[in-house]
Design a protein that fits this description.
This protein has about 325 residues and is of the alpha/beta class. The chain has a single domain, classed as TIM Barrel, CATH 3.20.20.70. About 40% of the residues lie in helices and about 20% in strands. Strands 1, 2, 3, 4, 5, 8, 9, 10, 11 and 12 form a ten-stranded mixed beta sheet that branches. A hairpin with a 2-residue loop joins strand 2 and strand 3. Helix 2 packs across helix 3 and helix 7 packs across helix 8. The relative contact order is 0.13. The model has no long low-confidence stretch (mean pLDDT about 95). The protein binds ligand PBG.
Length: about 325
């Protein structure tokens, strides 16, 4: 490379047209998945206090929201359910008339062009708030797998397009793949939350999904934030077990993980720009300490630049509106 004064990198930054032509990373509706929360009831749209602009919707209002996503050109949504009753084994998670099963049926009926991904986990459905079955204060791995498989199959039967297990039990991708295949759902992809960390950034989500653990924390199953090689082992296992898309979560404090996963595996990589990442920007913008649009677009672009092919983000609708401005 030649040096100054021959080389002047500022030449290519001089005007917007040159900046557009030399831009390496762009973000568009094609990259985005919008998460939504669904509750029992009719005509419900409860705004989530720590996630301004995000709601718990009843199925009828969810359909209206889904139509908005299609109008904006957003390809997909990921659904989280809030059950009517919680119990120790999360029964509503795999009930045929559970909230997610109802929501998926209604969405595939009313808005078939929207991709419906379902989050598979037990924490929203258990009275203790953990992602699996508890025995003597411990989350049992293998017993939980049976329930996750039942939950996945009931989502598939309801019409889910993609199954996304977020529980972090060992072996769940293989177990779910086998059950789907045995039941004729070999065409349904699995988006695995492969490197999911025990993060403090999930706080607002737990308010939204009413899924805060009632004792202890999730560190015996979600990953320890300082670990990167372990993330690569987790991703390798999920790919061996049949994952079609691998996810890193959260996104912003884990950009290095996104990059390493993309480089090592050359698989479709999803990144989850989680609730706490959203809430921080919203809160600071409300104080007028930062500019919401600029900061959100900068953050999402950095996630894409790190290597994510798709981003799950509560900013999805705003992004498309900003890009259309
Ligand atoms: C369920 C689940 C969580 C999130 C997605 N799926 C919460 C958790 O693991 O505690 C977090 C999403 C967010 O914070 O936006 N296991």
């Amino acid at each position: 490379m030649s040096h100054f004064p021959i080389s002047r990198p500022r030449r290519l930054r001089a005007g917007e047209n040159l900046r557009r032509l030399t831009r390496e990373t762009t973000i568009s509706a094609d990259d985005l998945i919008y998460p939504m929360f669904v509750v029992h009831g009719h005509d419900v749209a409860n705004e989530i206090l720590s996630m301004p602009g995000c709601y718990q919707y009843s199925v009828d209002r969810l359909i209206a929201a889904a139509k908005d996503l299609v109008a904006l050109g957003i390809p997909g949504t990921i659904l989280f359910g809030i059950p009517e009753f919680k119990d120790s084994v999360g029964s509503e998670a795999y009930a045929d008339d559970g909230i997610i099963q109802q929501a998926v049926k209604a969405l595939k009926d009313a808005v078939p062009e929207l991709l419906v991904i379902t989050d598979v986990c037990l924490c929203e459905y258990t009275d203790h708030g953990h992602c699996g079955v508890i025995h003597d204060g411990e989350v049992l791995n293998d017993r939980t797998l049976e329930l996750l498989a039942k939950e996945s199959l009931s989502h598939a039967r309801a019409g889910a397009d993609v199954i996304a297990p977020s529980d972090m039990m060992d072996g769940r991708v293989g177990t779910i793949r086998a059950v789907l295949d045995e039941n004729g759902f070999e065409g349904i992809p699995i988006m695995a939350y492969s490197a999911k960390y025990a993060s403090a950034f999930y706080g607002p989500f737990r308010e939204a999904a009413e899924s805060t653990p009632q004792f202890g924390d999730r560190r015996s199953y979600q990953m320890d934030p300082p670990n990167a090689e372990e993330a690569l082992r987790e991703v390798a296992l999920d790919i061996e077990e049949g994952a079609d898309i691998v996810m890193v979560k959260p996104a912003l404090s884990y950009l290095d993980i996104i990059r390493r996963v993309k480089e090592k595996f050359e698989m479709p990589v999803a990144a989850y720009n989680v609730s706490g990442e959203y809430a921080m920007i919203k809160a600071a913008a409300q104080q007028e300490w930062i500019d919401e649009k600029s900061v959100a677009l900068e953050v999402l672009t950095s996630i894409k630049r790190a290597g994510a092919d798709m981003i799950l983000t509560y900013f999805a609708k705003s992004v498309v509106e900003w890009l259309e401005e």
